[in-house]
Amino acid sequence: MALKIGDFFEDLGPVGVVAGVGTAVFAPFLATKVGKPLAKGAIKGGLVAYERSRGFFAEAEESFEDMKAEAKAELAEENSQAISSGESDTKAD
Fold this sequence. Notes:
Layout: H1 5-92
């Protein structure tokens, strides 16, 4: 049994008709008065979140670059020690 618009209005009577017409008349007004501030608030929230995430990712990138530089320095030190110990071993022969 499918719902029909006529059945809806018959069940609610004059109150349903007035509510339907009122909604149709005031919906555009309410959408602009209420919807615009809500949309602007959502946009502002998105911008704030974007700026905060940029700062977070910049700090994370800096930390990663620092760790990468430290790891490269340690590898270079280990390689130079290995070369030094290898040269002293060959000189002892």
